[in-house]
Amino acid sequence: MRPSTAGVKMPLCQANTIARKWHMAMAVTPEETNCAAALLAFGWGNPGDLNRKEELVNFMVFAGYIKDEERARLSL
Known about the structure:
This protein is mainly α. It folds into 2 domains: 1-34, no CATH class; 46-76, no CATH class. 50% of the residues lie in helices and 0% in strands. It has 5 helices and no strands. The chain has helices spanning 12-22, 36-41, 47-50, 53-62, 69-75. The longest helix has 11 residues, at 12-22. The protein is elongated and about 40 Å long.
């Protein structure tokens, strides 16, 4: 299954959950995901192109990857 067949963009974590929970094969391309963290993790974009720096900063801090927002901004 592909998110584009349903006419949606999907975060990669939701595609993984669908695959695990319902035993469905999932494939996601950069155009089919709307998760900036996943795009960066797979090398499919950079923060400037995505224009979502604050979203990435919040993700890194709340997920526990980086201690505070200032350090997260510096890492971008």
